[in-house]
Amino acid sequence: MRIFVAGGAGYIGSCCTEYLLEHGHQVTVYDALLNGHRQAVDPRADFILGDLADLSSLEDAIKRSRPDGVIHFAAFIEVGESMLDPLKYFRNNVSNAINLCQAAVSAGVRKLVFSSTAAVYGMPKVIPITETAETVPINPYGEAKLMFEKVLGWQHQLSGLQYTALRYFNAAGASEKFGEDHHPETHLIPLVLQAAEGRRKKISIYGDDYDTPDGTCIRDYVHVLDLAQAHLLALESDFCGSLNLGSGTGYSVKQVIDTVRTVTGKDFPVETAPRRPGDPPRLIADASAARRILGWQPQYDDLSAIIASAWRWRQQHPQGYQD
Ligand code: UFG
User: Fold this and answer.
1) CATH of the domain at 203
2) Which residues line ligand 1 (CB under 6 A)?
3) CB atoms within 10 A of CB 34
4) 77 and 15 within one domain
5) Residue 301 pLDDT level (bands cut at 50, 70, 90)
6) pLDDT 10s digits, 253-265
7) What's the domain range around 112?
């Protein structure tokens, strides 16, 4: 297949591009490099520097690359920032995403795969979470992702565009070549690895009085290459709708910290800090639909292996990407 990857210079987009190339597909990466890195674009892919806000550049790029499928990773990802600047999130993660959808439809693209999120569920009442759970986002980030899922749903009904929205739980880990390098970094695993490297003085646990066995929040960490596998399967499938992607196993913040200590052999100070507003105590996926419908078979169900891959990448890229 020829695949057009919007946001292929970001964390998940770069790993997915590599995976697609490894599986014999041709990839065009379209990325404005606002948060992505030029060095994260696999050299085997064609690269077009462009913004989703620029509809004519986007239409031109899609027409020229004549893709069989489009994958959309090009979104802003910080929940906290979305509470401070909601319009930034609605503008890029909805309006600009509509540009991508429009350009794909007018170029006759058959299928669009969209990076959605567990944040569409808000504070779920039942764990593990299935796709039929109520979607009640509690921040503009989650709301914008849900809005674009609905755009795709209508577009499918009315124009026949095929789509799959993949609701990621906590993406983590790295491939041999590409990894996580966000500025600022807000995610737990890279922050704890920075503490293990001595680049960060200490790690703060945001709340240890939750109703969980050790009092800290539980998340479902899923390896970025398992996410990549699901994107390829979604492109190949006729399924239209939303699917959860998670390992189905939950780990607490304290368990993540202990696992980093074991994997890296390093110790570092840890303090308890106040809760971070809007954190659900427990998010664990029921991803049986993705396994059944797509034939998804995640390879990494063990937190140590996920963290070890991220640690390897960080040791090879101590400064992250240099651009
Ligand atoms: N945490 C800490 N200390 C830190 C950083 C995080 O204790 O320094 C805790 C958080 O409070 C949370 C857990 O670690 O309980 C995981 O936090 P992350 O920021 O790594 O991830 P989130 O679960 O908040 O967010 C992730 C994705 C979002 C997505 C969300 C779905 O990053 O994009 O899952 O709910 F929206």
Assistant:
1) 3.90.25.10
2) 77, 79, 117-119, 141, 170, 186-188, 191, 203-206, 217, 219, 253, 276, 279, 283
3) 12
4) yes
5) confident
6) 999 999 999 999 9
7) 2-171+221-245
